[in-house]
């Protein structure tokens, strides 16, 4: 007797006792394939997106998990923060000076070979970290309002975020959820955002992952010939929002975590509005529709069956993606590698860029002058403490956490709500992701990135003000 090798074997007999054992095995395997998509995807949605109430406030499980881990490791985190910034930076300097090590084809060694700019940032950041820790050198470096804020308040809460997010993110990206949702929305996505339908999956993954990981994902797709220069730049600057977990950290710094769910909904609304508008304006609109040099253009394939409904097609593509998922051990090692790369890069870069930026704010009037044109706009929106808010917001191009560090002292909840929102929605900041965007070689120089950041700021301000007035 011959059996058809399909994912859904046809069974004529209604009495399951009459089914051949081989057919039962085929049917069981088919169910296992479905569950391989459904179970991890549902778990990922629950962890990252399902709100619940804890101690009188709404939060999401991933944020609560990070809080629990941080409460256990808090006594050790000051020392760990210094080690994470200093030791890898020293190894980076050694690798950069020894050619055989630089050329070694080893993933671990290559963690310490990030290129000249990142090497310089790591070394400078490590020196800054040591100066702050030992309160050595100029006071403007280690003052409680400059380096002290970064070392004692910011650095200790980041490590758990990086590793927890990196280890759990595959639940959203590796088991078919992106394919399922991306297939359902691909036509709408193409019309709304002027991007290939397949980019819906990439864009969702970029939104849900850490900013730098989203940028790297899109850059790989660009170099493989999936996107033109304009398309890649639009995805990077529109959808590479910081992760849900880090968004919670941002809101926690500004003492607004009790409204996390409606605030993050506001982030999503503002992000979609910006993604609809900003790519249609210069400078993104003017970028060329050309593919990466040497890349073979990848055709957009449509494997939908003639009589296959949209939901069934999306479900099939999701199952096929789950079939291609990496083994769990490889996912875990990849997550640890990505989190380690992020931590040893961001910690020292955050210290050097953050200290310089906070020092400009604390000891000079430069940022207040730069923020002056923004004050009338905030006053027009009737936001209290407009000058303080404008100064905080304008530091967002330097570093993601600066606005919320400064904004924590603002008394108005509405203003803090808006400051945190436009900060996360800005996407581009010099201490980390802007350098990665420029290294991607997709036409995004410093001036264009600043122009895009300003556009996103001006578009999102009224959105967050409206949502804040509705929520608070």
TrEMBL record:
InterPro entries assigned to the protein according to its UniProt record, in alphabetical order: Gate_dom
Membrane-crossing residue ranges in chain numbering: 35-52, 72-95, 116-134, 154-172, 232-251, 263-281, 342-366, 386-410, 417-438, 450-471
Highest taxon, organism lineage: Bacteria
Domain Nucleoside transporter/FeoB GTPase Gate: from-to ranges: 158-254
Pfam family, one: Gate
Keywords in alphabetical order: Membrane, Transmembrane, Transmembrane helix
Protein name from the UniProt record: YjiH family protein
Gene source species: Marinobacterium rhizophilum
Lineage, uppermost ranks: Bacteria, Pseudomonadati, Pseudomonadota, Gammaproteobacteria, Oceanospirillales
């Amino acid at each position: 007797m011959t059996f058809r090798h399909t994912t859904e074997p046809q069974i004529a007999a209604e009495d399951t006792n009459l089914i051949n054992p081989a057919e039962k095995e085929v049917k069981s395997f088919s169910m296992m394939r479905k569950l391989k998509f459904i179970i991890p995807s549902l778990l990922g949605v629950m962890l990252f997106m399902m709100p619940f109430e804890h101690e009188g406030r709404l939060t999401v499980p991933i944020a609560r998990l990070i809080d629990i881990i941080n409460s256990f490791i808090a006594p050790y985190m000051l020392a760990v923060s210094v080690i994470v910034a200093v030791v890898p930076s020293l190894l980076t300097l050694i690798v950069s000076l020894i050619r055989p090590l630089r050329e070694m084809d080893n993933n671990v060694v290559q963690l310490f070979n990030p290129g000249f700019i990142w090497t310089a940032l790591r070394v400078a950041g490590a020196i800054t970290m040591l100066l702050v820790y030992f309160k050595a050198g100029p006071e403007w470096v280690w003052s409680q309002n400059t380096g002290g804020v970064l070392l004692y308040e910011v650095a200790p809460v980041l490590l758990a975020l990086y590793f927890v997010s990196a280890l759990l993110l595959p639940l959203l990206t590796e088991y078919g959820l992106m394919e399922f949702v991306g297939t359902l929305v691909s036509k709408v996505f193409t019309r709304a955002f002027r991007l290939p339908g397949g980019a819906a999956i990439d864009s969702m993954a970029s939104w849900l992952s850490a900013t730098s990981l989203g940028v790297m994902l899109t850059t790989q797709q660009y170099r493989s010939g999936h996107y033109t220069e304009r398309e890649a730049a639009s995805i990077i600057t529109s959808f590479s929002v910081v992760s849900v977990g880090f968004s919670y950290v941002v809101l926690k710094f500004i003492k607004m975590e009790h409204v996390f769910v409606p605030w993050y909904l506001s982030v999503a609304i503002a992000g979609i509005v910006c993604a609809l508008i900003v790519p249609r304006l210069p400078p993104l609109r003017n970028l060329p529709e050309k593919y990466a040099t040497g890349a073979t253009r990848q055709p957009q394939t449509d494997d939908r069956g003639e009589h296959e409904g949209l939901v069934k097609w999306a479900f099939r593509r999701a199952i096929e993606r789950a079939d291609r998922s990496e083994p769990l051990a490889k996912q875990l090692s990849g997550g640890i590698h990505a989190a380690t790369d992020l931590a040893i890069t961001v910690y020292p870069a955050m210290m050097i860029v953050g200290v310089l930026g906070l020092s400009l704010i604390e000891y000079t009037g430069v940022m207040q002058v730069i923020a002056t044109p923004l004050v009338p706009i905030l006053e027009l929106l009737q936001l209290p403490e407009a000058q303080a808010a404008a100064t905080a917001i304008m530091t967002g191009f330097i570093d993601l956490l600066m606005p919320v560090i400064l904004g924590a002292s603002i008394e108005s909840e509405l203003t803090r709500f808006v400051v945190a929102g436009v900060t996360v929605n800005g996407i581009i900041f010099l201490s980390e992701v802007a350098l990665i965007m420029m290294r991607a070689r997709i036409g995004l120089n410093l001036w264009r990135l600043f122009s895009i950041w300003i556009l996103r700021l001006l578009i999102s301000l009224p959105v967050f003000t409206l949502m804040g007035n509705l929520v608070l």
